Amino acid sequence: MICENHILTDEQVQHYETFGFIIRRQVFDFKEIERINDEFEKHFTIIKEGSENNCKRMGPRQGRDWPNWSNLIPGTPYMAGLLEDPRIYIPTEQLQGEDTVPVYSNANSFRHNTAWHPDMSQRHIRGLKNLIYLQPTTGNHGSLRLIPGSHISPLFEELIHIGLRPLDDSENGFLAKSGMQGEDIPAYVFCSQPGDVITFNMNVWHAAFGGYEDRRNCSFGFYSNPKTDQEKEELQAQVENAKKIKTEMKMDLIDSQYYHEKWLENPKGSWKRERWIKWLNEWGFIEALNS
């Protein structure tokens, strides 16, 4: 384990607060990425076979057009444990507080470009995503790009106002009116290698262009623990949104459990996972994503 990547410097924390992101290079080594890729490939093979059968039975895929599934399952034990890897949770707790909680751990295989969007529109609770790409990325080959500082008002709201989301060909969209393409928007472009960890605020506007078939990554999403009435109200809205996400992921889940019972059993008796499970249960995420 690469211990020097656990703790963020003051400069990294300030960079995150100001611009909404940081990137840590080669946090995971080649053998670890190889292990992630091996689990990804084995489970993705099962997913593809299941999706083909589902399409025959249920018709074309509904909702998300990319395969997307939970890592918190027996079939991906190494990936299931990454939430409890100090290289993931320690920097996250530095940025969001020691009582922050992981809500999801996903594997994704993208097929196309990803339009400009934030992952969260709530403005009081804090959401953070850790992202690991499993192939090299460049600006014209599927790299994540984001607009620095766009998690902060008033820029966040201004981007909604001008119609940057949704990024489409409608007559009212900013890009259609301006004649610009999505990749023309000024942005920070992450050229990354497998093993790098990109961490960003879920309110930051981000996108990816130069997309290609089977662009793979793993994402680990954390929410801050709500303390005010406004934060609690917004977190409850996220629980309702989780139900929609479960519907979109339905074709890619081997069974109905997002938080698999084996993960919930916490066989190693991790006190941190026990606290997380209690929180997820109390706020209704387990019911929303396992029903």
Task: Give a concise summary.
This protein is α+β, with helices and mostly antiparallel strands and 291 residues long. It is built from 10 helices and 10 strands. The protein is globular, with a radius of gyration of 19 Å.
Which characteristics define this entry?
single chain, 291 residues, alpha+beta, Jelly Rolls, 6-stranded antiparallel beta sheet, 10 helices, 10 strands, globular
Structure commentary:
By secondary structure, the chain is of the alpha+beta class. It is about 40% helix and about 15% strand. It is globular, with a radius of gyration of 19 Å.
How helical, in percent, are the residues?
25-40%
Roughly what is the average pLDDT, rounded to an integer?
A: 88
At the fold tier of CATH, the topology name is Jelly Rolls
User: In one word, what is the shape?
Assistant: globular
* Low-confidence sequence ranges: 53-63
Rg (CA only): 19 Å
Coarse structural class: alpha+beta
- Give, in order, the helices and strands: HEHEHHEEEEHHEEEEHHHH
Total domains, how many? Answer: 1
Major pleated sheet:
6 strands, antiparallel
The number of helical runs is 10
Distance between the termini: 36 Å
Beta-strand percentage range: 15-25%
